[in-house]
Write a structure and sequence with these properties.
The structure holds two protein chains of two kinds. Chain A contains five helices and no strands. Chain A has helices at about 1-10, 10-30, 35-45, 50-60, 65-100. The longest helix of chain A is centred in the C-terminal third of the chain and has 34 residues, at about 65-100. Chain B is an all-alpha fold. Chain B has helices spanning about 5-20, 30-50, 60-80, 85-110, 115-145, 155-175, 185-200, 205-230, 230-255, 260-265, 275. Helices cover about 75% and strands about 0% of the residues of chain B. Chain B has two domains: about 1-80; about 80-275, no CATH class. Classes of the chains: A mainly alpha, B mainly alpha. Chains A and B meet through helix 1, helix 2, helix 3, helix 4 and helix 5 of A and helix 1, helix 2, helix 3, helix 4 and helix 5 of B.
Chain lengths: ~100, ~280
């Protein structure tokens, strides 16, 4: 238990960032009109693909002989890229349809 | 090259502005592009920032990025406009799978020197990412008609017990690391099954709400992975998606005149929801 508390104590700055960003996320979204629910969901889904950075760092840190890390890491990059690129592209398509109307 | 880290700040700002513009009708299209530029910038910085134990492997990374880009573009061009929600769900599942993939490798690297807090963070990323992964696949299956609605009276009790099992196993592994060698694998399997049983009883009509919730989960998993790697963009972007996704989920429930709890454990038909609640 004490070890967990120590970990929290060592990461006070991070916890502060968590709190402020949670509030920021709430505030940004709270006034969205109903028609934008689906495009916003799709757009923020693309942003959640930010996990791609973790996969890139993982592959960069893996030794060239460590096939397991390399394979799992690159599969991670491929999947997250699909999430990011596909997510933004499909959001764009959706929003263009709004424009015509 | 040492200063390239500073560009992370810039991409975080772009993500925030993008999300803000996405939430009002006149600027939504611009917001999407700004967010995309922020993501692209963050990816480039992740490729070139100086990191400890850098081994290069750039060919592999570029190849993976290329494959992902092509597949993502093909998916998004080919999809019919009516099938967009299920595609978003599928994409979200991929993001969750990536969080699972990196936490598996990080768990395998653990040794005695890793602090309890770091272990807890990694296992949480694995659990939440896993739920987002299999849950999104089921949501995709339901919306595309491949998975039928299935509901049994005991499913909500089963899910509560199963959730307790997931959390219990994780707490045990974090407290007493390495005592049972197959436990990390078991935690992974149990988490993946939880995502499956969590979404399965929820009615097909409620799927958009569930996808939004699972999207928030992926964001939280990304934020936790950001703590593991000490990466601020992952952390901030992930929390931003996590919190805005949660609020969006609540707003979508309100638009349908339902409560979130009702959607998750209810599974009643839309019309009887208000009387049942």
């Amino acid at each position: 238990m004490l070890e967990i508390l120590d970990y929290l104590k060592d990461n006070v700055l991070t916890i502060n960032l968590w709190i402020i960003t949670i509030y920021l996320g709430f505030e940004i979204i709270s006034k969205v009109p109903t028609v934008l629910h689906t495009p916003l969901m799709s757009g923020s889904n693309a942003i959640s693909g930010i996990v791609i950075i973790g996969a890139i760092i993982l592959v960069r840190q893996s030794s060239p002989e460590d096939y397991l890390s390399l394979v799992i890491g690159s599969v991670g990059i491929v999947l997250a890229t699909i999430n990011v690129v596909g997510g933004h592209a499909v959001t764009n398509r959706m929003l263009e349809m709004f424009k015509k109307k | 090259m040492e200063y390239i880290n500073l560009l992370y700040i810039f991409s975080t700002v772009l993500l925030i502005i993008g999300l803000r513009k996405l939430s009002s009708p006149s600027s939504a299209a611009k917001g999407n592009i700004i967010a995309a530029v922020g993501m692209g910038l963050a990816t480039v910085v992740a490729m070139f920032e100086p990191i400890e134990g850098d081994q290069g492997n750039y060919v592999l990374i570029l190849l993976s990025l290329l494959i992902g880009t092509v597949v993502g573009l093909v998916f998004s061009k080919k999809v019919a406009m009516t099938a967009v929600p299920e595609l978003v769900s599928l994409f979200n599942g991929f993001g969750g799978a990536c969080a699972v993939a990196i936490s598996i490798i990080e768990v395998m690297k653990f040794d005695e020197a890793v602090s309890m807090g770091a272990r807890a963070t990694t296992y949480l990323a694995m659990f939440i990412g896993g739920v987002a992964f299999t849950g999104s696949l089921i949501a995709y299956g339901k919306l595309s008609g491949k998975v039928k609605d299935w509901k049994s009276g005991i499913s909500s009790y089963f899910n509560l017990i199963w959730l307790a099992l997931c959390l219990g196993l994780m707490i045990y592994e974090v407290m007493f690391m390495g005592q049972v060698t197959y436990l990390p694998m078991l935690i992974l399997v149990v988490s993946l099954i939880y995502g499956f049983t969590f979404v399965l009883p929820i009615g097909g009509a409620d799927m958009p709400v569930v996808i939004s919730l699972l999207n928030a989960f992926t964001g939280i998993a990304a934020a936790l992975a950001g703590i593991v790697y000490g990466n601020m963009v992952m952390l901030l972007g992930g929390i931003l998606v996590g919190s805005s996704g949660t609020i969006l989920t609540v707003l979508m429930c309100n638009a349908m005149n339902r409560s979130l709890i009702n959607v998750i454990i209810g599974g009643f038909g839309g019309s009887s929801a208000s009387s049942a609640a």
